[in-house]
Amino acid sequence: MHEHEDPLRDLLVILRHAPHGSSWLKEGLDAALVAAAFGQRVSLLFMGEGVTALMPGQGPGALEQKGTAATLEMLEMYDIETLLVDAQALSALGLSADELMLDVDPVSAEALAEALAAHRLVLTF
Amino acid sequence: MASTEIYRYLSVNNHHYALDPEDYLVDMTQWSPQIAEALAREEGIELTEEHWEVLRVLRDFYARYEMAPAMRPLVKAVGKALGPNKGRSIHLMRLFPGSPAKVAARLAGLPKPTHCL
Amino acid sequence: MLLHVVNRSPANSRVFEQALTAMGPDDVLLLIEDGVQGALPQLVRYYAQIEGRLFALREDLGARGLLGRCAESVQVVDVDGFVTLTEEAERTVSWY
What is the per-residue pLDDT across C15-27, written as a single tens digit (0 to 9) for each? Predict the structure, then answer.
């Protein structure tokens, strides 16, 4: 499906919405999982309020709707291991990377541009 | 996803269990090993310990991640739980011919895997 | 070069900040739909850091009566120009 020496990864999914408030986050994760299930090399980038998807200790919604935390835990089973977080967005919410529920790479604005350029396809959710 | 549409009923020991048009249980909480055996018989599969250990991996996967896995993550989960020899698609194809992720999820009483087409 | 496309006005959405954060030094930004408000002299300051790399879609400006009211630093392109930008870019990223 792809050359191993190809420096471009297949898909970057940018997640910019919080859990529970809308279905954007869920839909973005679905897109990432479908691509990964078909063997694509997928990375995620959390930006804006999307970084709150990584808060530890999330639960179901007020009406017992499922959240997205279990899906995030599942990413490693789909071999989605490149998890980037906009460092500015984290600090804007007073969060630090080491308190999040998954191991993530905080990236500066300059590195963000490089991440976008390093993927064959970029989808924003 | 399991749909809520009832298509037919599966009879096990004089109880009737609703199945959706793709033969997934409509009410996941009704699942029992006897139901798995009845569904397997319809599929022409005789459940052995090798089948059961995969079904247990699937039920654990669902309990943890709230979703039924597509083929790749199923292979990975089976490999993690049962060792690399069993974490191979050929092993799962032999046990659950056709579409292992779908067939095994159905027998394990899970919804249809979301991320395989 | 990547083409970034923004369709929200900086007057009521901060999506433009996400686009700017993600832009590389050669990337360009095209304003479409309500995003074209960002081409007005009063709002274009939000895009000061990418001066010379900011475009706005003529058709969307025209529909809103904003044609001829753009800041001079904004390059106005029509749909054909949009297509050309898309072809020149390695890929397009939408911010909405």
Answer: 999 999 999 999 9
Tokens of residue A78, six digits? 């789909």
Q: Which residues of C touch A (CB under 8 A)?
A: 2, 14, 18, 21-25, 27, 90-91, 93-96
Q: The domain A12-51+67-124 is classified under which CATH number: 3.20.20.150, 3.40.1260.10, 2.120.10.30, 3.30.450.180? A: 3.40.1260.10
CB contact under 8 A, C24 and A114: yes
User: Is residue A37 less than 8 Å (CB to CB) from chain B?
Assistant: yes
Taking each helix axis from N to C end, the angle separating A109-117 and C15-22, rounded to the nearest 10 degrees, works out to: 80
For the stretch C78-95, pLDDT in tens is 999 999 999 999 999 999
| Residue-level pLDDT at A73 | 97
| Mean pLDDT of the region A68-81 | 97
> What are the tokens at A55?
């808060």
One CATH from 3.40.50.1000, 3.30.565.10, 3.40.1260.10, 3.10.290.10 for C2-95: 3.40.1260.10
**ipTM field:** 0.88
Measured in angstroms, the CA of A95 and the nearest CA of chain B are apart by 25
What gap in Å lies between CA A63 and CA C9, rounded to an integer? 34
Catalytic residues of B: 116
